[in-house]
Amino acid sequence: MSTEVAAQDLLRFITVGSVDDGKSTLIGRLLYEANAIYEDQLSSVKKASTAKNVDLDLSLLTDGLRAEREQGITIDVAYRYFSTPRRTFIIADAPGHEQYTRNMATGSSTAELALILVDARKGVLTQTRRHTLIAWLLGIRRMIVAVNKMDLVGYQKQVFDSIRADFEKCVEGFPGIELHFLPLSALGGENVINSNGAMPWYSGPSLLELLETLPATPSVSDSFRFPVQTVIRPNQDFRGYAGQVSSGTVKVGDEVLALPSGQRATVDGILLQTQNLEKAVTSQSIVLTLSKHIDLGRGDMLVSPEDPPKVTTRITSNLIWLSSTPLRDDTRYLIKHTTQTVCGRVIQLNKKIDIDTFTEIEGDSLGFNEIGEVEFELHSPVFCDVYKDNRVTGSFIVMDPRNNDTVAAGMITAMAQPGTGEASDSDAGSRVALQHGVTVWFTGLSGAGKTTICRAVATELLAHGLQVEVIDGDVIRKHLCKDLGFSKSDRDENIRRIAFVARMLTRNGVVVLVSAISPYRAAREEARHTIGDFVEVFVNTPLEVCELRDAKDLYKKAREGAIHGFTGIDDPYEPPVAPEIVCDTSRQNIREVSAKVVDKVLEHLSSSAAGSER
Amino acid sequence: MPNGSMAHLDALEAESIYILREVVAESAHPAMLYSVGKDSSVMLRLAQKAFYPGKIPFPLLHIDTGFKFREMLTFRDRICQELGVKLIVHTNTDAVKDGANPFKLSTSRCCALLKTKALLDALAMNGIDVAIGGARRDEEKSRAKERVFSLRDSLGQWDPKNQRPEFWNLYNVRIAPDQALRVFPLSNWTELDVWQYIDREQIPVVPLYFAKEREMLVRGDLVIPLDHPMDLLPGEKPQRVMCRMRSLGCTYCTGAIRSTASTVPDIIDELKLFRRSERENRVIDHDQEGSMELKKREGYF
Ligand SMILES: Nc1nc2c(ncn2[C@@H]2O[C@H](COP(=O)(O)OP(=O)(O)O)[C@@H](O)[C@H]2O)c(=O)[nH]1
User: If A547 and its partner were Cys, which of A59, A555, B137, B145 is the partner (CB 3.0–4.6 Å)?
Assistant: First the structure.
C-alpha cells in the first residue's frame, strides 16, 4: 500500500458561523474539492439545485435530518469526513442556531482547531464573539477566521483589514489564542483550495493549505496519565491494565504511581494485542503490565510519580448546563470523570457567566445553555488536573441519577487538596428523612468481588440522597479489630464488633454496607438478629475464579503455606441458607449486581417507612 | 507527519478500542451485532485487540433474514469458531413461514419484519441492553448526527430530538430498565478507512467483496445475485458478469457492481476513483427521500 496513506495524521476541527454566513456552502465546497462526495449524492444535489433553480448549491450536501430539512435549519452537530494525501479530517459542523451553546460546546470538546466564518458584509457580530468564546472555553486555542463572501464587497482589502482588527479587539483578554485570518469566497471557491487571483493583496495560504499544515496536537501537559478502564486477567499468568493514555508517554521500565493507593511499580510491558511496544504516546489504547502486583482497578489511575495529578474531593469548574431542568444544590448528581463515576453535590454557584460579554452576572441557578462557575463536593476523590493543562483529566460530565440524563459538562479550574475542603456533613437538610436505615451484609470468599460491588452500590445510593457508610472487613481489621487473629473465636468476635457498629448506624437511618468474608453461618445469623434491618448478599463467585484473581496475593501465600487458616483453602466457608440476594461476579457484571442490591435497599427502606407510618 | 501525533488509522483504532472497553466496563448485557460484512469484520478485530489476551467478552448476534448469501453464512460460522466467540443467530421465523419477501411485500415492509422486528425480538429474548453496531457516520446523510452511544426507548425507537449530548470521550452508559443503547465504535471511520485497515491488518472478509465472474441477472443498471429463487421477466436470462459486492445485505436487495477489483489494494484504488456511495446499490435507501432515517426511528439499526 502507498506510504502516502501511512503518513497521514488526523485533524479534528469545528466549523462555526451564524446562519447564512456560508458555512454549509464552504463545507460543501471543501468536501467537493477533496473529492469526498459520492457521485450519486452529487447527482441528487444537482437535481435539487435544478429544482430550486440555482447552479449547484453545495450547501445541500450537508443538510441533515428530515425535521430539520423541513424547518430549513440544522440543530445538531453533524460530523463530516474528508481526506487529502497529507491529512485526514473530521469536521464537527456546529449550527449557528439558538441552541448553539450546547452544540458548539459539544463539537468543540473533541476539536483541536476552530474554523470561524464571518460574513464580509456583516463583519464581527455578537454571535461571532460568543462562538469564539465558547470554543476558547472548551480549550481550543488555534483558530482560523475566514472572512467569507469577499466577492460581495468587491474583494476589498480594507473590508478584510477592518474585520480583522475588530476580531482581534473582541478576543482581547483571552490568553493563548492563535489566530489565522483569511479572505475567501466559498461560493466561487476563491482561496478555499487555491486562488484565482481575485485578491492579489493576499499572499497567504489557502484554507486547505492552512488546514493541512497547522499542528494537529493541542498544547496540553505531557505528564503521564493513564486511567484504568478494565483489568484483563484471562489466566493465572497474566494481569494487564487496559486503558487509553490521556496524556504524556510511557516506556517499558518507567516507574509509575498508582492512585489512589499510592503504590509504585515499574512498567513491565506495553501491549497492543500481539505487539509488544517499547513506548506508548498520548491517545494510544494499550494494555500495561507491571513488575509487581498492586491493588488497581477501573477508575484508578497510573501516573508519573514526579508530577502526579491532584487527588481531591473538592473541585471548582466552569459548568455548561445542558438540561431544561435547572441546576439544584439539594440534589445529588453523578459525576463521570475519566473512567470513574462518583457521587457529588453542588456546594455553591460562585458566579454565572454572560456568554455575550463574558462578564459575571447575578443568579442563583443555571438553566439550559447557561454557564457558571460551580464548586462540587465529591463523595470519593478524583485524580485531576485543571482543564487548561489537560483536557482529559480536567473534564467531567454530570448525570442526573433520577433519569440518567447528561445534564452538564464541566471543566475543572481549581481544586482543593484533601483535608482543606470543608467537612461534608452539613447536608442534613437534603437527607431523606428515615426512621431506620438498613445493613447490607456482603459475605463471600476473599476476591469474590465484595468490595467492588460495595463501592458501586455506595455511589448509587449516595446519588439517591441516602446516608451511606461502608464497613470494609480489611479496614476494620487494621483498626477496630487490630488485636484479633483468625481463630474461630477471634473471627466471631470480629463479626460481633462489626455488627455492633452497624446496628448503631442502621438505627440512625444510615445505609450500612458491610463487606466481610464472615465465613461462619452462626455469626452472620447473630448479626442479622442484632441489627434487625438486614439484607444478606451472598457473593458466590467460585473459588477457582477468586483464586485466579488473587487481588491481594493471599491465595498464593495460603497455598504455599505462608498463611494458615485461610478461608476456602484450609478453613471452611459456610454459605448462607436463605440470603436475600445471591450473585456471582464471574458470570454477572458489577452493573447488574449493584442494580439488584440498590433495588433491594430501596424496597426495604420504603416498606419499613410505610410500616412506621402505620 | 508532525511530531507526536498518531497516524490516522492508529487514532481511529485507539478511539474504537476505548469505546468497546467502556461498553464492557459499564453495561450489564452487551452484545455485538455481527452482520458478517466488512465493517463487522473490522469491529471483530478491534474487539479482539481491546481484550487481548482475554477473549471477546460478549456474544455476537446475527439477524438472519433467510435471504443472506450462502458464502456469508459459511464465513460467519468459520470465523466464530476460530475466535471461540459465542454466536446467537435469530430469524423472524413467523414472517418467513408467511413467505415474507421484498417482491410480495414492499422492501420497507420486508425490512421491517425480517430485520427490524427480528432485531428487537432478539435483543429482548436475550436480555441485551447494549448492542454494538458497525454503522458509520459517513454512510448516509441521516447518520452524520448520530451519537456514538445512541439512546433507544422501550420500542427500540430512536428520537433524534432526545439524544444525549456527547462531550469529550465521556460516554454516559446509564440506562433505565426499559431503555437500550446502540453503540457505534466505527462512527468516525469512512469506507476508505475500513478497507485500508483491512489491508493493514490482513483481516479476512467474505470473498463476495472481490471481483470474479459470477452468474448474475442484469436488469437495467442493476446487477442482481441469484442465490435465492427469483422470477425472471420475459426475455431475461442469467449471464456471467465480472462483478463484486460493495456491501452485503440480502441477495434481493444488494446489487453487485461491475468491477475487476479482486484484491484489497485493488478495492482501495477503485474507491479512490469511484465516488459512489456504497448504499447506492441497495434498493432500500431509494424507497423515498430520507427513508433510512424513517427506518431508524422505527428501530432499524
Ligand atoms: N456571494 C457569495 N455568497 C455566498 C458565499 N458563501 C455562501 N454564500 C451564500 O450565502 C447563503 C447562505 O449560505 P449557507 O452555506 O447556506 O450558510 P450557512 O447558514 O452558514 O450554512 C447561500 O445563499 C450561499 O449561496 C460567498 O462566498 N459569496
Answer: A555
